[in-house]
Each structure stands twice: as C-alpha cells, then as structure tokens.
C-alpha cells in the first residue's frame, strides 16, 4: 500500500467513526424506505469503512481510471451500507440516500448497473453469482495490464450454492491474485442458522483446498480487517479470501445475532432505540430526510 494509504488505515478511531456513521445511515435509510435488509448491512459496516477510507483505490473524480479497484457486492440485499459508503466517499450526493428503494431512484433495493453506471460493476440480487462475475472482471483487468484489484463481498448463505465453488476453482486455476473475497460470516440467513440449512464449515480449509489464500478474522474489528487486507495484498499467484466473523445487526443490541433482522424494518420506537445505541460522531452529520419522517426522529 502507498504510504498515505497506510497512514489513513492506521487511524483506527477515524475508521470506527466512519463505520458508526455508515450504521446510522443504514438504519435511517431503511426506516425511511419502510423496508430493507438491515441485519447483514450493519454487520458489513466495518469492512466497508476500511475499504472506502483507504483500503481500496477509488476516486469519484477518476471513475474511468483503468487502474482503479472494483467492488462486486454479491449479496446485493446488503446494499444500504454500500450506498452509504459511496455517498460518504463522494460517489453519490449525500441527500440521495433518502431516496433508497424508491421507484425511479438509482439506489434500488439491489444494486442496478443501469441506474449507477461506472459505480455498480454488475447488477446483483440473485445470490451465488457475484464471484463468477468478479472472476471475469479480474481476468479482464489482468489481460489489460490493470494494476487494480477486484473486491467481492459474499454472504455466508451464498456458499451453499454450487456456482460459488465452481467460481472458486476458476479463481485459483487462473491465478487471480488481483481478486479478494470478503465473506460476511454472521452464520445466519433468512431461514435461520446457516448450519441448520446447510453446513459450510470448515471454510478456511475448504478455500485452501481449492487453491486460495485464506484467513479468518473478527470481521467487526477494524485493526484485524486492516491487517488482513495488507497480508492478502502480498500473496502472488493466489486469490485471497477473508472470512470475516461478523454479527448480524452489529451495534444495535436488540438486533444482534437475530435472524429475524435479516430483512425487517424497525418501528419508530425501535429506530430511536437503535440510533441511541449506536451514538453519533462529531465528525459527521446525518443525511437530510424528508420532513414527513424527520419530524418524528428522536435520536
């Protein structure tokens, strides 16, 4: 990593503040929309904070840069936190977050390339397909001599689909060392516990058997995420996967580790409780909301 990037990524408090704001944005976006997938998005906030504060090369003024990094959000339903990171980075107007999941809004409930060309690499929603697309982008970038990397976020439930493992074989076969996968490993999916639906462990050993460099970390611990990104960036010839043990609903006690918050929208009282639990940062301001709901916001 460049020296400037290293300095930014060592400021753990700033990264935690950013993750906190992404969580506030996520709660407020989903409440304003009246629906959305809140649990997994809250758990993903720390990784998104690290990526968009220096972990990946991305500049909103240089979207056409052939050497920029790309992100494929395979579990597209967690997109609220991604949109928040994009807005906070300057790729989107901050006020656009209030249009999340509205008809005609570019911020659809699952990322749509047509709505955000140059930002969304591929439309996602059907689970299990993101890694295949990320492989194609990574192969193309290698052939074109791009120095950029491809980051692909997968939900743990997606790993129950055979296409993911076919794609994993492809990544290793073609030595896609410009590819890094982050697994949002909260062990819960819409039907309940992942293990009860279809066991996927042991993940580190499985990915290594497929020819990957694999590490498992606390996916809600900022220093661990930074260290894992640094290590994975040095593995020549191998695709890398970070298995991030995250908490569904991270930061909101009544949501944490509860599968029912995979896709629920909090009530007014629950929203106020969630925002109070999260707290706020003096370094950020909440995005503006329509007056209809803003008047009822109490935290």
Describe this structure in words.
- The structure is a single chain.
- The strands form two sheets. The protein has a five-stranded parallel sheet, with helices on both faces. The chain has a two-stranded antiparallel sheet with strand order 4-5.
- Strand 6, helix 9 and strand 7 form a beta-alpha-beta unit.
- It is globular and about 55 Å long.
- It has eleven helices and seven strands.
- With 299 residues, the chain is an alpha/beta fold.
Question: What's the helix and strand layout?
Answer:
Layout: H1 3-9, H2 12-33, H3 38-55, E1 70-73, H4 79-89, H5 130-143, E2 150-155, H6 162-173, E3 179-185, E4 188-189, E5 192-193, H7 194-197, H8 203-209, E6 213-218, H9 222-232, E7 240-245, H10 268-278, H11 291-294
Parallel strand pairs: 1-2, 2-3, 3-7, 6-7
Antiparallel strand pairs: 4-5
Helix pairs in contact: 1-3, 2-3, 2-4, 2-10, 3-4, 3-9, 5-6
């Amino acid at each position: 990593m460049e020296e400037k990037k290293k300095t930014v990524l060592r400021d753990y408090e700033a990264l935690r503040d950013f993750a906190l704001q992404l969580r506030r944005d996520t709660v407020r976006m989903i409440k304003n929309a009246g629906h959305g997938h809140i649990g997994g998005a809250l758990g993903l906030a720390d990784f998104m904070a690290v990526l968009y504060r220096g972990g990946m090369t991305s500049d909103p003024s240089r979207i056409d840069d052939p050497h920029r990094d790309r992100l494929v959000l395979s579990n597209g339903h967690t997109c609220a936190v991604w949109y928040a990171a994009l807005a906070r980075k300057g790729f989107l107007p901050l006020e656009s977050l209030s249009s999340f999941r509205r008809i005609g809004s570019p911020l659809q409930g699952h990322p749509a390339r047509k709505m955000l060309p140059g930002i969304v690499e591929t439309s996602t929603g059907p689970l299990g397909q993101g890694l295949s697309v990320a492989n194609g982008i990574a192969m193309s970038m290698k052939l074109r001599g791009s120095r950029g990397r491809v980051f692909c976020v997968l939900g743990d439930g997606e790993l129950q689909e055979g296409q993911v493992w076919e794609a994993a074989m492809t990544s290793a076969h073609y030595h896609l060392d410009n590819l890094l996968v982050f697994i949002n490993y909260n062990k819960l999916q819409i039907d309940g516990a992942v293990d009860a639906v279809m066991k996927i462990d042991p993940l580190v050993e499985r990915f290594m058997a497929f020819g990957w460099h694999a590490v498992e970390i606390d996916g809600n611990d900022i220093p661990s995420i930074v260290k894992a990104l640094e290590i994975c960036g040095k593995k020549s010839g191998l695709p890398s996967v970070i298995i991030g043990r995250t908490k569904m609903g991270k930061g909101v006690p009544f949501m944490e580790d509860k599968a029912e918050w995979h896709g629920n929208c909090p009530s007014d009282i629950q929203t106020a409780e969630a925002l109070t639990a999260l707290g706020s940062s003096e370094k950020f301001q909440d995005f503006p909301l329509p007056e209809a709901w803003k008047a009822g916001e109490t935290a």
